[in-house]
Every structure is written in C-alpha cells, then in structure tokens.
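request received
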Amino acid sequence: MNKLSAKKILIIEDDKDFVRTFTAIMENFGFSVSICFSGKEARNFIKRSPPDLILLDIKLPDVDGLNLIEEIREGLAETRIIVITGHAFLENAIKALRLGASDFFVKPVDLKALKKAIDRCLDDQEKSLQNKKLTQEVIKQNIELEKMMKKIKGLNEELSDAYIETMKSLAEALEAKDSYTKSHSDMVADYAKKIAERMELPFYEIKKIFHSALLHDLGKMSIPDSILNKPGSLDEKEWEEIRKHPGKSEDILKPLTFITFLPIIRHHHERFDGTGYPDKLSGEKIPLGARILAVADSFEAMTRDRSYRKALSKERAIEEIKRCSGSQFDPKVVIAFLEVLKG
Ligand SMILES: [Fe+2]
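response:
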C-alpha cells in the first residue's frame, strides 16, 4: 500500500507503551497512523480528519469510550471501530458491539486476529461505499427518469388539449345536423359517467366512457334526415340504416389514432343476451363501457319526446330498464344505475 492510498487509522488510547508498539505495527501493515490520548483530543481530531478505522480503548481518562463509539458512529457512518481494552468484561464487549463497534479485543492482543479483523472492517467499508455510490447512481437515474416523465406528461397534456378541441368540433358538427342527438349525448354522457363512478372504475376508464358517450351517435350524421326525424315508425330498410350508425361513428373517429374508446362506441347497441348489433356480442364480451352506455342511452332516449312518440315518465322508464335487466342490459350496470338515480 503506498502512502497516498494508505488507509487512515486512528489509535485512541492513553497507554503510551501500547500506542508506541501499535503505531509501529500498524505502520508496518501499511496504514497511515494518527494518535489521540484522550476523548477530547479524539473528538477534535475526528472532526478535522475522519479516519477509516479507529482502534479504541474504552477506558479513557476523560470520557467513557462506549459513549464515544455511539458519537462517532452517528457522525461518521463509514468509519469502522475496533475496541481494544485491558478489561475483559463480557458486558462491555456486548455494549460496544451493540453501539456499532465492529470487533472487540482484550489485551494482550492476538496480532494475527487483529489484522484479520482490520481487513474485514476495511472490506466491509469498501462494500458499503460502493453500495452508497450505487444508490446515488440509482437516485440520479430516478431523477432523470422523473424529468423524462414530466416531459412526457407535458406532451400528453398538449395532446389532450388537441383532443378536447377535436371533441368540441365533432360535437358541434353533430349539433348542426341533429340537435336531438347532441343534447341527448350530453345527458347520456352525464348518466354514463355517474354509473361508471358508482361502479368505482378507474379515473381513466370513467373519462373514456364519458367521451365515448358524447360521440357515440356521431355516425347518425350520415343517416338521411327523412329517416332520422321520421314521425312514424320505420320500415326494415330504414332500420337497417339506423343500425349502421355505431359502425359509422367508429369509422369517423378511426383516423384519430389517440382515441382509445372506439370499441365502446362500436358496441353501444349490443344486448347482454347477444341479440343486439352490430356484432351480436353477449355478456362480458361486450366492453363494460358499452354496457354502461347502453343503459344510459336507453334511459335517456325513453324519457325524451321524439318526433314519433311521447316521452315515458321517469318511473315507467325505470320499470322498463329493470324489466330488460339480464336480456338487454347487464344486471350489474342496472343495479349501479338505479343507485345513481336514488342519489
Ligand atoms: Fe346509438
């Protein structure tokens, strides 16, 4: 070990003969040795120049060496302490080790064993320093990662603003064509959101359901007014046109690749028993958002005047929703909806 890289050992001991002998031995081992004869002197020295290892006599003239161990370990986590004492009290040894000493030797010291203990301490110290370095590296990387996440979040927010603007334009386009559909969609979105909240869905799912409800009937823009606003009942061909609207809504929104709720829109007219449209999906194969939308949509439509029929009363519409639970609607969604209506 050369002088520059020599580990620093501090001997704290008031026995001058011991100090002389051990200074020579430690220097012979290649360490850079310093000496303090009292606790006070040691405290001052350690503050100025923290050692790698301390050989400490716990019986000092001015302080209890055990207290010094605690003090040093609190201030210098990486400094190792080996206690060397002339008093072979087991109790002291246990106390010293509990307080953070790495080893305990009784005079006369077995030099071979002491050298091994010193090597062990310094190895342990090296590992601890490496771990510390590694931890600092991980913390640094985490900070970088956090910065990156913030950047991504910013980009998402920008995208989200563009998305909301798109939503508004689409809703306005729909309103121009069919004011019923627009105000109907607003109400459906409100019901659907409340059902999703009652079902304790995650925030982002609730958001998806809400937005899909606003736009679910967008495809109706392509249905001729003569069918959409027909006062009388529709014939089969006209119904066929109507049944195309979920797919058309999906087609209109498909180019907006950031929209993640197209399946909700496509399947909002599926029935729980598998007799709905466009794909005759049944049960839980229908996206949950679409099952929620189906209840909200039907209830809102039933309680509103149309060109071809009068609105049902709220009570009558509730009866109808209950009657169709399990056939048209998912019973779990119906239960949540009824709870929403109760407030
Ligand atoms: Fe619809």
